[in-house]
Automatic annotation (TrEMBL):
Pfam families: DUF2007. Coiled coil: none annotated. This is DUF2007 domain-containing protein. InterPro entries: DUF2007 (IPR018551), N-reg_PII-like_a/b (IPR011322). Residues 1-65 form the DUF2007 domain.
Length: 76
């Protein structure tokens, strides 16, 4: 699995999850349970990971959906 996105914007994560799900790209969201430790205030970023062989496809999907600026610079 490779990191596609790292953000604390829960709306963006939900949007990316929906895009990936619709495109049948497997994904995992890591660090969700950190919200318990941080007190659910959303300051710690969550990471969205996809299989390495689907990373380019996922990056293209996110960019085409207008969220390319949210990807790490190397992913653009």
């Amino acid at each position: 699995m490779e990191e596609l996105l790292k953000t604390n914007d829960m709306t963006l994560i939900a949007y990316v999850e929906a895009l990936l799900k619709d495109a049948n790209i497997p994904y995992q969201v890591l660090d969700q349970n950190m919200s318990v430790i941080e007190g659910s205030i959303g300051i710690l970023p969550r990471r969205v990971l996809v299989p390495e062989d689907r990373l380019t496809e996922a990056r293209t999907l996110i960019t085409d959906a207008g969220e390319g600026a949210s990807l790490p610079p190397a992913a653009r």
